[in-house]
Amino acid sequence: MSTKSIIILLIGLFLCTRIQSQQAFREYVAKKDFFNGLKSGEFSIYDQSNRNLLFRLESRYGFLQKAELFAYPQRQIVGSIKNNFVMWLYDADIQIFDMFYNQWIPGKITQAFPQFFFRYNIQYGNRRLLLQQLPFSFTSEIRDELAPSYVLARIRKRLSSLILPNTYDVQVYTNELPDVIYFLALSALDHNNSIQGRSNQNTNGNNQ
């Protein structure tokens, strides 16, 4: 086994050990629809058993991502995300309904520039969060910017997503923030990765 392979294996074992060391308060399964047509990705979000539908992210037709998040069974709108046209980097406005204060709270999700292509900044009210994809992993973490060692949530893309529609496991480790913010972050991450993936395919195709 090469030195590079050993290093990657050690990093993977370290990440698995660190991830398993925390106890999640809540766990969800987010499944992307097989076909979305001319809309951005839509998701059904279930509880850990993968049986009870808790949330549904539905998109509107258009070139840019524009989606609303509904809570079930009441089908109450609890969040929204709207991608803005910005060259090269992801930028979106979000709205989250705070049930405690009974009001909408605005925020933003922006891709960090220029060196952190796998990192996003999330602003929600007076909180600033970081969304970062871990190296050599399908896992992304959401942390508080002021306490970067404090993991709020993890988003793990399943290996089955390589051949089937994307499926994510979402683990929440705190009650400080509404879980809606993590679902909107997942939507932003998935949408941007899909756009970049199609762009890379077109570039490779043109070079052949």
Structural summary, described in words:
There is one protein chain. The chain is α+β, with helices and mostly antiparallel strands and 208 residues long. It has one domain (24-207): Tubby Protein, Chain A (Alpha-Beta Barrel), CATH 3.20.90. The chain is 22% helix and 41% strand. The protein contains 2 helices and 12 strands. It has helices at 3-20, 180-207; strands at residues 26-32, 43-47, 53-59, 66-71, 76-83, 91-98, 103-111, 119-124, 127-133, 139-144, 147-157, 167-172. The longest helix has 28 residues, at 180-207. The two termini are 33 Å apart. The model is unreliable at 4-20 and 199-206 (pLDDT under 50). Residues 1-21 form the signal peptide. Keywords: Signal.
Quick gist of this model?
With 208 residues, this protein is an alpha+beta fold. Helix content is 22%, strand content 41%.
Structure keywords:
208 residues; alpha+beta; Tubby Protein, Chain A; 12-stranded antiparallel β-barrel; 2 helices; 22% helix; 41% strand; globular; disordered C terminus; signal
Question: Helices, strands, pairings?
Answer:
Layout: H1 3-20, E1 26-32, E2 43-47, E3 53-59, E4 66-71, E5 76-83, E6 91-98, E7 103-111, E8 119-124, E9 127-133, E10 139-144, E11 147-157, E12 167-172, H2 180-207
Antiparallel strand pairs: 1-2, 1-12, 2-3, 3-4, 4-5, 5-6, 6-7, 7-8, 8-9, 9-10, 10-11, 11-12
The count of helical stretches stands at 2
Percent of residues in helices: 10-25%
> Which series of helices and strands comes N to C?
HEEEEEEEEEEEEH
Task: Report the sheet-strand fraction.
Answer: 35-45%
